[in-house]
Structures are given as C-alpha cells and as structure tokens.
Amino acid sequence: MSTMLEVRGLAHRYGAGPDAHVAVEDLAFTVAKDELACIVGPSGCGKSTLLRCIAGLIKPSAGEVSLHGDRVVGVPDDLAVVFQDYSRSLFPWLSVRGNVEFPLRTRVGSRAERRARAQEALGWVGLSDAANKYPWQLSGGMQQRVSIARALATRPALLLMDEPFASVDAQTRADLEDLLLRVRRDHGSTVLLVTHDIDESVYLGDRVLVLSKSPASIVADLKVDLPADRDQISTRGSSTFVELRTEIARLLHDRQPAPAEPAPAAASASSSDELAAERFLAAEREEAHQKTAT
Ligand SMILES: Nc1ncnc2c1ncn2[C@@H]1O[C@H](COP(=O)(O)OP(=O)(O)OP(=O)(O)O)[C@@H](O)[C@H]1O
C-alpha cells in the first residue's frame, strides 16, 4: 500500500524562552492510502496541535509533514478537516446543500458539477432529503453528518477528524461511527482521527497510535486485528477488542502521575493493573460525558 501521509521528526512549541510550552515532541509515523488510523492520548497531550501541524494550519517548530510525497507548507487543497464543534463549522445562513457546495467553489468550475457532488456526498451520509434545510433545523448528529458530507464532497486525499463525535449523545455517536465505517468501506478514504475515547479508537481504527501525556510522543503503534465489518455489539464484545482496549488503557494509565492511594494489598499484580486500567477507562468516559453535557 502506498504512503499517503508521512510525519517526520515533528515537534511544536508554543511561545519562546522560559515560558515556552512544548506541545509535541519528535513524532514520526506514516498513514497508508485507504487506512483509518486513530490517535488516542490523554487530555491536553497535544493531539489537536499535531492535527493542526498536519493540516498546515500551524508551522511546526521542527520536522516536516508530507502528503502523497508533497511537503505540507500551507493547507493542502486535497485535505479536509472535520472538527468536534459542528455548530461553529457550518454556516447557518447557507442551506445544507450550500454548506456542502461551499468548499467546491474554488475546486470545481462547473455549477452543475458542484451540485452533483454535493448531492452525492449528502446521499453517502443519508441526508439527500435535507438538502434544502438549514443547519439550525437539524439535530446535532445530522449537522455533523453535513460536516462529514462537506469534507467528503471535496474528495480529499486525507480526511482529518478531530474528536468528531465527542459532542453528540451516545446513541448518535454509535450511529456516526458506523456511518464513517460504511462510507469508508463503500467509497474508500484515508482517515486520521483523533479521539479521547479508547473504545472508539479500537472500534474504528485499522491502527491506533497511542500518545504520551504532554509533550506528545508515540508510546505505541498498534494494529487492530479485527474484521473490516464491525458492529457495535459483537465487535465490542470480542476478546480481541477487549484485550486491545485494556492494553491501551494500561499504556495510558502507566503514563499518568502515580495514584495517591496504594492498590489494595489483597489484589494480585495483574488484577490491580486491570483495576487501574478500568478506573482509567471510567475516568475517561466521565470526562467525555461531561464534555458532551456542557
Ligand atoms: N495557541 C496556544 N498557545 C499556547 N499553548 C497552547 C496553544 N494551543 C494549545 N496549547 C497548549 O498545548 C498543549 C496541547 O494542547 P492541544 O490542544 O494540542 O492538546 P489536546 O491533546 O488536543 O487537548 P484535548 O484533549 O483537551 O483536546 C496544552 O497544554 C495546551 O494548553
């Protein structure tokens, strides 16, 4: 498989001098064409900074990013980003169709072609009938589907997704995850998705890159050995899924500050590890839940 994205020696520091903050440190990885790679890491570790560097939105302090072999120096034309906050990324004064056509203005000369591409992408996300509505007439999940259609309509070489499903309720989140898997299976796309949610990273990914706490570096690059066809019940219940999410939780937990309380004396080494991993998962879910609630 050919390499779509290559990140080499990437580092980014905000500010200078003694107040400088190193957000990302010496990151290197590749994403192959048609691969879906997930990045998971603790809150504030530098995930969004990494995505902004890849998207050409900020210039890294060191290292470089290449997309299909071309060095990224500004925002590439064939790269699309889906952000968590759909309500701020859609234009409320444009219809759903208008929003999806918007980025095509500079890419596709023919108006008829723009319309056809927008209608096609809306079909992929199940919103063909909502083309004439306005974003504020749609639910949060539907608005995020519009954002995804808008990104896909540009036929990006790379789709970056920054916590794309973190602002919707659990059922909508599961539906959007399945939508992403289906769109990708049917139409092929290369995706790099950042999430806080360990389970989501395993459910969606072909690979999971685990980041350390700030400054972000890669502590593991794990292949997800699950069938391409996944479903919310049986995939999440499979032993491969459970083992991998536990391993990731343990990797993340091992890089947290030492707990204030010692583990119960009666617990064996491995069961206290698992308890710690479970507690970490529960804390992550609680944090994600609070983010959704606010
Ligand atoms: N513009 C900025 N100026 C200074 N520091 C920044 C800036 N943006 C981010 N940071 C700092 O860099 C670190 C990494 O931030 P970043 O948003 O990349 O992390 P994150 O992993 O995406 O966070 P979260 O999981 O909470 O979304 C944080 O400590 C943050 O405070």
UniProtKB/TrEMBL annotation:
<protein>
    <submittedName>
        <fullName>ABC transporter ATP-binding protein</fullName>
    </submittedName>
</protein>
<keyword id="KW-0067">ATP-binding</keyword>
<dbReference type="Pfam" id="PF00005">
    <property type="entry name" value="ABC_tran"/>
</dbReference>
<feature type="region of interest" description="Disordered">
    <location>
        <begin position="253"/>
        <end position="294"/>
    </location>
</feature>
<feature type="domain" description="ABC transporter">
    <location>
        <begin position="5"/>
        <end position="238"/>
    </location>
</feature>
<feature type="compositionally biased region" description="Low complexity">
    <location>
        <begin position="263"/>
        <end position="280"/>
    </location>
</feature>
<dbReference type="InterPro" id="IPR017871">
    <property type="entry name" value="ABC_transporter-like_CS"/>
</dbReference>
<dbReference type="InterPro" id="IPR050166">
    <property type="entry name" value="ABC_transporter_ATP-bind"/>
</dbReference>
<feature type="compositionally biased region" description="Basic and acidic residues">
    <location>
        <begin position="281"/>
        <end position="294"/>
    </location>
</feature>
<dbReference type="GO" id="GO:0005524">
    <property type="term" value="F:ATP binding"/>
</dbReference>
<dbReference type="InterPro" id="IPR027417">
    <property type="entry name" value="P-loop_NTPase"/>
</dbReference>
<dbReference type="InterPro" id="IPR003593">
    <property type="entry name" value="AAA+_ATPase"/>
</dbReference>
<keyword id="KW-0813">Transport</keyword>
<keyword id="KW-0547">Nucleotide-binding</keyword>
<dbReference type="InterPro" id="IPR003439">
    <property type="entry name" value="ABC_transporter-like_ATP-bd"/>
</dbReference>
